[in-house]
């Protein structure tokens, strides 16, 4: 969001009256000023004189130097103006940022919830295939699937440094002893196998290649789509952090004084309904938000890149689509192991 956009958000109510820090007294009584001061600024009524008085003003002076002018303002009022200006700026920025962050949070939550649902549905389909088609007991494959899909979700949400290739390889390695016990050999013989034998299978997994090239092809197919989904999540998180950093921008003294003159000093002359012109609002806010303006080009680039990523999320072979038929890929791997069963069993026997 550009500085001008922030300025319009913060001072969207400015109208073109073009009265600025006008302390020329237009009233003989300050009663109306007292009412506005209490309601608009939350100041104490005793801060406001009953009638225009001469007081040394610094923030609301018509001259660059403090001057002793007749007005409805006191030094205590000026101090309240400055504090109110600071509160007003921070509240306005936080309110605007809250709406933006809420939209980002909703997008991130919806995306992650959809991926969680898809991974759970796919896990359920694979579990059914292992139990019903390949007779692998549910209690034996549940942990393998839980770890695998947990790692996939962590990758998609940017919560792990492991690559898709690592995650796929680890899954098939952990699945291999179960496939050997229940698919490659007679399940009754598997009861004679101990943990040491399973450890031996894992040790020689790479050389045995029980699933052929299916794991490698699956990892390549998933890699690009899953990277795109991961970057999507990470970009939304960066946006959240950027918005939070803007909330913590320090409002410097000159900015607070400028906003005080802009918003409140017209009270000193009894011009309670006066508002500064829009151009003046924008000029003041450009100065106040100069630190935020340094973020503007980077933020614009981030938004543009995010939009490009978002468009890619719905192309063919996206993460959700690949997840939805991953059970077919796992079945292909099991079929490969079943067909190569005699060769695998023979190789294992010679180890």
TrEMBL record:
The keyword Endoplasmic reticulum does not apply. It is a lipid-anchor; GPI-anchor. GO terms for cellular component: cell surface; extracellular region; plasma membrane; side of membrane. Keywords: Cell membrane, Glycoprotein, GPI-anchor, Heparan sulfate, Lipoprotein, Membrane, Proteoglycan, Signal. It is found in: Cell membrane. Pfam families: Glypican. Its main location: membrane. Residues 1-26 form the signal peptide. The keyword Manganese does not apply. GO terms for biological process: cell migration; positive regulation of canonical Wnt signaling pathway; regulation of protein localization to membrane. Belongs to the glypican family. This is Glypican-5. It comes from Lymnaea stagnalis (Great pond snail).
